[in-house]
Amino acid sequence: MSVPLCLECGGSYAYEDGPLYVCPECGHEWSIDEVQTESGAVVRDANGAVLNDGDSVTLIKDLKVKGASSTLKAGTKVKNIRLSQGDHNIDCKIDGVGAMGLKSEFVKKA
After folding, report:
1. DSSP state letter for 36
2. What is the pTM of this model?
3. What is the dihedral of CA 86, 89, 11, 25, to 10 degrees?
4. Are 16 and 3 within 8 A, CB to CB?
5. Beta-bridge mates of residue 98
6. How far is the C-alpha of 80 from the C-alpha of 92, rounded, in Å?
7. pLDDT tens digits along 16-41
């Protein structure tokens, strides 16, 4: 998992220090749980772990694909997710299926 930009100054040199992120440029400290998407909402997986852009996730149940006869099987790993706004808050590309929108309640962080 990559360290996010500083929430205060936008600096890219923030580092992880236990349960906190610290920005050496402005001295701002924030909790890992405060990492937010651009929409301002924290996106969590089915187990409560915070998801970030670029994370890999695994499906926890079989999901039917609307408009297709295929089903995504539990255990399918999805790499390099992008967080988005709306009901389906994860945009991703799944091998063999293509671009999809997923709900975070059906995935766990890999």
Report:
1. -
2. 0.63
3. 100
4. yes
5. 94
6. 7
7. 888 888 989 988 888 876 665 444 66
